[in-house]
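Incident log, structure service

09:12 report received: a user says their structure output differs between two submissions of the same chain.
09:20 pulled the input from the user's history:
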Amino acid sequence: IKPVAVDPHPFLANAKVVLSECFYPDGTPEKGNTRNKAAEVFAKHKDDVPMFGLEQEYFIYKNGKPYMWPEGGFPIGQGDYYCGNGSQVCGRELALEHYQACLTMGLKISGVNAEVAPSQWEFQVGPCIGIEEGDHMVMARWVFQKIAEKYGLEINYDPKPIKGDWNGSGCHMNFSTKAMREEGGIKAIKAACENLKKTFLDDVKFYGGDNNERMTGAHETSKLSEFTYGVGTRHTSCRIGNDVDAAGKGYFEDRRPASNIDPYLSTAVLFTSSMGYTADAPDVAQLERQTWWAELV
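09:34 re-ran on a clean worker, output below:
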């Protein structure tokens, strides 16, 4: 193993948490070491200063079902839970405990909010530069596993854990480069979106397993089979914010990634595809093949 980051331990005094990459005895990266390729990509193009902010959605589960849901039934339908307050909100104490632990570690976690379904929440990691985004997201997920372990709970990152008229869970990626953040950067943003049109059938393979169950064109999603973008939109693949459009610079949001993405591969793919660096993109062989890929035409 090769240490790559050291942070204060969120649960133990006078201790550290060490994030490491794994390698085989011959020095080649272990199959699950997706960080190595992403770090290579970001180091090669460091002058672009790629910046990310990821919105990690999840469900809190207990005994195989969402936390605090009625036994043998369903709660009141979606509508009053998103960013809600009051008795209808489930799990705030856990979301805030996680938030505080991440702050203690010094992770770049920038907020939390209740999501569309009860016991569904989101935390945001970023803004981070390059490989830092994947590192901080991996550690934030690790923190939540430790907290869930303490209470006998599960943190469910499935893209569509509850079938029917309930939102799935995504991990929207907000992205910009130095050029996009400078005056006139809107041109670079739109150029990036146009580049994504050319690679979207390959890119979505890196955006989470079983994402076909979530990306149906309903429940605030676009369709996997097409690429679209617009200003202030919610049912497109990517969205340019109204404020960004007015300012003529900033960032854009890729709304396709699922909650169970590999944060290293997905950020590297968004970066390489949007910038036209396709020769440097991660290899799809690093992913577990999904049967729904055959439907991507």
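09:41 both user submissions now match this output. Likely a transient worker issue. Closing.
09:42 reviewer note: The first strand starts at residue 2 and ends at 8. The helical segments are 35-44, 92-105, 131-151, 178-181, 186-203, 242-247, 263-275.
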